[in-house]
Design a protein that fits this description.
Blueprint lengths: L1 H8 L12 H11 L2 H12 L6 E7 L5 E6 L10 E8 L14 H9 L4 H6 L6
Bound molecules: fe (ii) ion.
Length: 127
């Protein structure tokens, strides 16, 4: 159930729709070219066919950030990778507000409510 804790903890009730700042912004830019490019890739992962999770992980060895898809919370987590941004895209996560075919609207709403300070606090200290 730990991924649900990551998911709920990286949601903000403020709904500011802002972008990450500081070191997280810099790392997303270094790995994806910028926040918008990272967001576009994360959206694509989060709207893939199937049910599961979209997760931006940080590799604890290289420090690199990458967006990944896993189906089950207990399977597929990459060893040594720390979850930074987590969204549950199983239908139960959004079916009260969106139709299954409207998952993209749910992921867009997620972006409007990310607690970026929490995501940044998950970054591994530079070596
Ligand atoms: Fe869930």
């Amino acid at each position: 159930m730990r991924l649900h804790e990551f998911y709920f903890d990286n949601l903000s009730s403020l709904g500011k729709g802002d972008a990450p700042a500081g070191r997280l912004r810099d790392l997303l830019a270094a790995n994806y070219g910028g926040y918008d490019e990272w967001k576009r890739d994360f959206f694509a992962v989060g709207t893939m066919r199937g049910v599961g999770w979209a997760i931006a992980y940080q590799d604890s060895m290289s420090g690199r950030i990458s967006n990944q898809w896993i189906t089950l919370r207990q399977d597929g987590n990459l060893a040594g990778f720390e979850p930074l941004v987590v969204v549950d895209v199983w239908e139960h996560a959004y079916m009260l507000d969106y139709k299954p075919a409207d998952r993209g609207k749910y992921v867009e709403a997620f972006f409007e409510n990310v607690a970026w300070d929490v995501c940044e606090s998950r970054l591994i200290a530079p070596k």
